[in-house]
Every structure is written in C-alpha cells, then in structure tokens.
Write a structure and sequence with these properties.
The complex is a heterodimer of chains A (91) and B (410).
Chain A (H helix, E strand, L loop, with lengths): L5 E4 L9 H5 L4 E3 L5 E4 L5 E2 L3 E2 L10 H10 L5 E4 L5 E3 L3
Antiparallel strand pairs in A: 1-5, 1-6, 2-3, 3-4, 6-7
Chain B lengths: L1 E8 L3 H13 L5 E5 L14 H4 L15 H4 L2 E5 L3 E5 L4 E4 L4 E9 L4 E2 L12 E3 L3 H11 L4 E5 L3 H12 L3 E5 L12 H13 L3 E3 L4 E6 L3 E6 L4 E3 L2 E4 L3 E2 L3 H5 L8 E3 L10 E3 L4 E5 L4 E3 L4 H15 L11 E6 L2 E7 L8 E7 L4 E8 L2 E8 L5 H9 L8 H4 L11
Chain lengths: 91, 410
C-alpha cells in the first residue's frame, strides 16, 4: 500500500465505538464529544484531516494507522497518500 | 476428504482478522473460513446505528471486505454453512451438508447468537433479534406500515433500538425485567440517567416484569406483560443476551463453560484448537480472572492474536479493552472488567445532576473496570490505572472526586 501522508476521522460518521483507540492508543483517543481524534504534537487533538507527521508519537507506523482505520465498524477513518489519493477505505 | 492447513469456524471480525493475520505470516498455507451466514464480512455493529439504520448511508457500507478480497488473499470462504461435528483425534470438522474438512490448526471464532425469546408467540412475524444482516432486513421490512414497536431487554441493543424506532417515527415501548436499565452491570443512578433519556425521547418504559406472551395472528399485534398489561405493537426488537453456539465443539471434547474455555494463549483444552472473540472465555492475565467479553475491539484483537499463535507464535492475550455506545445525548462506555462480581469496591465519580456519572470498579484497591456515562475522555487514564495495577489504597477519595484529574493518580 502507498505510504500514509494524511489521516482523518469523519466526525459525522464516527460513533465513538472505540476500536481504533484500542488498536492505536498511541495515536488516537476519544474527545469530550465521544469522537475519535488524533493525538498531535503540543497536546493538540484533532480529527483532521491532518498531516501524519504531526502525530505526537513518531513511532506510530503506517501499519498501526491502517489497522486502526480498518478496525472502525462504521468506516469513519480515512487515510490518504502524498498525492492526496484516498488509500482507505478502498474506493 | 478435503484438507486445509487453517480452518476457521466463524466469518465475523474475529475469524476474518485471524485469516488476514495468518496470511501475512504464512503466504501459502490453505485457509478456509466457514460462516453460518451466506455473506462475507460485514459490520454487525452498524445494524443498530442511526446513520445506517435510517438509510443515511448506502446499504453497501455494511460490507467490510470486498468479495475479491478472499480470492486475492487465497482464502476460501464457505458461506451459509455451519460446523456440525468435531473429530479432534482425526483433526476434522464435518459441516451441516456432510462435507468433511481436515485441518492442521482450527480456530473457533463462533461468536454469540442472540438468545431466543422463550415465550408463546415469539415466532410471529414482526419479532426480531438484532444480530445479523437478515435481522436488519426483516426489521426494515416489518417496520413498513407499523405504528408501534416494542423493545425487549435493557442492554446495548435495547438502548440503540429504542432510539432507532423513535427516529423512525414509531411509538415505542420498552420492556425490561430488571428494576432499572442495565441492572446489574449498571447501578440505579446510571440506570435512571439512561431511562430519563429514553423517556425524554418518548419511550414508554415497563420495568420489573417479563413479557408473558406475544399476541396476534400470523403477524405480531401486541404483547402481554405478566401483570396483564397489553401493549399493541407490530414490530419487536428483542435484545436479551447471547448464547455461544459451541455444543458441537463440546461434543468433540473441547472444554466449554458459558463460552469456549481457553488459556491466555487462546488455546482450548484440545491440541491445535484455538478460540477467540465473543466465544472465548479466557484467563485474563491483568485481572487474574476468567472473563468473556463481547465487544468489537476484543473480537478483533483476539482474532489477530489467535491468527499469530496459529502460525507458530506463542503470545499471551494481555489487553484492556473498552467499548462505547452512544445515543439520545448519552455516551455510555465500559472499560475493562465491569462484571458485577461480589466483593468489588465501587467508587462513584460525578453525579446524575452533572449529567456525567461514572463508577470505578476496584478489587483490592486496584482498578479493574469502569462504567462511564458522559465521561468518555477518562477512558485513557482508566485503562492505564488497570494496566499498571496502580494501588489506590488511601486515594479512593480522590478517585471519587470528579474535580481531580485521573492523571494525578497514575
């Protein structure tokens, strides 16, 4: 798969069911509205879309981000490559 | 007799994740998945979620794998068949159509079936469980022309279905046999917060008694409660728990209890047979207790671990899982082990008045679980408290003070 450059949680789809947080606790958590957010540098929390280079924990790899996205039971997590092409969910 | 290196009974998230994991570790070994539903992997969770139930997203969103994923990964999916017999000595499984499949490694990813409603009239058209794609289609079909619905059972399914029926414009009644919602997993305060939200949404709640009978002709027309109360309804959603379909495996010598009994490696009592997901009753290393969880995360993570162990790893399952249900303005989250086991300490956090109320559950002054209403941001800290087995002796007052940041207890 292409390298992941940008990550996004579509907040209107996210139901806060939490599998992504279980799968990638270093990269994701739920916010006060019960929506998944990415844990970014300087304590910033955002559903994105954000540049994956902004992630607080640089050790989070593509595989972990993909597994977290695939774990979403409502397909609310979108991943994009450097060209902006959506790599997950597969179109 | 056909042979497969890896045989997986169950095509849900556990079995499919296991297959995916196995394929990455073993590019060539034959993998066969048996699914009792005639479908590829789909999102069971989506069925009772608003955006899907109300058709705000296309039905096709439910599929989590493309049809082509199976052949592309050289995974054989036998859909619409059930396992009928296990011969652990010959290492083979016989399907309901008589097909015999020999295996080297077997995974029981059996899931949980909806508990059947054992009352007269439960077979009438209009009575549904909420577990499968076919259940979903049946509910949608029977909602056409219906004016009134009943929801039976005070758990996650009941909560979600009350909301879906109300949003679909049906008059909705809820019947729970317990004195309050989600008893005994939740306490009275939590239960009342949920009931208040349901009532505000227009749901009429009947507590503390069973439904005695479903009435009508071929189609459901109503239900009668123990005290004789009659509730007219044309559609019913029944969510009264689950049962593990493991009899055939037990008959084949696999040790079972409520679920299939496994150790921390997800190995059953029979060599080369693993069990994972909702069906697995496993020894949890963090709690040092036998537990069984029915959440998507747990199912997926155990599927992954079982798949790895079937290809020769030997890793223990050691993960604090959690899940959440949202609706009617309430976010309900369960962290770790929330089973109402005698002897637990329970520390309340927050209040009904603040509309943010949690219960932290401890054993020997160490957190083992928590139930949270509108306190989901605290999940992360609670998981760490559980994982690290932090001794909170002398600090329970702080734990119960919602003004205290849980981070300070880590």
């Amino acid at each position: 798969m292409a390298k992941i450059a940008k990550v996004e949680v579509k907040r209107d789809i996210c139901i806060g069911a939490t599998p992504c947080v279980v799968a990638a606790p270093a990269a994701m958590e739920l916010d006060a509205e019960n929506k998944a957010v990415y844990k970014l540098k300087d304590g910033v929390r955002s559903s994105g879309p954000v540049d994956r280079a902004q992630l607080e924990d640089p050790s989070v790899d593509d595989d972990t981000l993909l597994i977290a996205a695939q774990s979403c039971p409502v397909k609310a997590i979108f991943l994009y490559d450097e060209t902006g092409k959506q790599v997950y969910p597969e179109a | 007799m056909a042979a497969t290196r890896y045989l997986i009974i169950g095509g849900g998230i556990t079995g499919t994740t296991a297959a995916d994991t196995i394929r990455k570790a073993d590019p060539d070994g034959e993998i066969t998945i048996i699914s009792d539903e005639p479908y590829r992997l789909y999102s069971r969770i989506m069925i009772s979620k608003t955006h899907f139930f109300l058709g705000k997203v296309p039905f096709e969103q439910i599929w989590l794998k493309k049809e082509s994923w199976y052949p592309e990964n050289n995974i054989r999916l036998i859909a619409g068949r059930t396992a009928a017999k296990l011969d652990a000595t010959a290492k083979s499984v016989t399907l309901d159509d008589g097909t015999v499949l020999a295996y080297d490694k077997l995974l029981l990813a059996l899931g949980i079936c909806a508990r059947r409603w054992g009352i007269p009239g439960a077979d009438k058209r209009g009575v549904h469980y909420v577990r499968t794609v076919d259940d979903f289609r049946g509910i949608q079909e029977d909602m056409k022309g219906a004016k009134q619905a009943i929801v039976v059972g005070g758990g996650a399914i009941g909560f979600e279905m009350c909301e879906q029926f109300r949003l679909s414009g049906l008059e909705t009644a809820l019947s729970i046999r317990e004195p309050h919602y989600w008893d005994p997993v939740l306490d009275e305060t939590s239960g009342h917060i949920i009931e208040a939200a349901l009532e505000k949404a227009g749901v009429k709640i009947y507590r503390g008694q069973y439904v005695k009978e479903a009435t009508g002709g071929e189609r459901l027309e109503g239900v009668t409660l123990e005290d004789g109360t009659r509730i007219p309804c044309q559609v019913a959603a029944v969510g009264i728990g689950g049962v593990c379909p493991h009899k055939w495996a037990a008959d084949g010598g696999v040790k079972v209890s409520r679920g299939v009994v496994v150790n921390e490696y997800l190995e059953t009592s029979v060599p080369d047979v693993w069990a994972a997901g909702d069906a697995a009753e496993y020894h949890d290393l963090i709690f040092d207790e036998t537990v069984q969880f029915g959440s998507w995360s747990n199912a997926q993570q155990q599927g992954k671990l079982a798949g790895a162990n079937m290809t020769g790893e030997k890793k223990p399952y050691k993960l604090v899982t959690f899940y959440a249900v949202s609706g009617l303005g309430i976010n309900i989250a369960f962290v770790g082990n929330v089973a109402p086991v005698p002897g637990r300490q329970v520390v309340p956090r927050g209040s009904a008045e603040a509309n943010a109320y949690g219960r932290v559950i401890l054993k020997d002054n160490r957190v083992v679980g928590a139930t949270l209403l509108n306190r989901t941001p605290e999940i992360g800290c609670l998981v760490k408290l559980i994982e690290n087995k932090v001794d909170l002796s002398g600090r329970l007052k702080e734990l119960g003070d919602p003004a205290v940041d849980l981070k300070s207890l880590l």
